Amino acid sequence: MSINAPRREFDIYTCQFVSRGLVFDEDGLPLPDKVLAKVMDDDYKCVNRIELKDRKTKRLYYHETAKDPINNTYFLRVANERMLTVPDEHRGTKSELEHPYLYVFVLAGLEQPLVMIEKCRVCSQASGEVARVLSQSLSKMLVKDGWTLTLRKCETTDTHAQCLTAMGYMMDDPVKDINTLEELHGHENVGNLLKKKRGPKRLNFRNCINNKTYADTIIRLLHEYIDGKTKPKDIMRPIRAALEVGAIRKVTLKEFESEFGDIMNDSSTMFDNYQNLTLVYFKDEKMYNDMRDVFAKYSAKKTGR
Question: pLDDT, tens digit, for every residue of 5-18?
Answer without folding.
Answer: 446 788 899 998 88
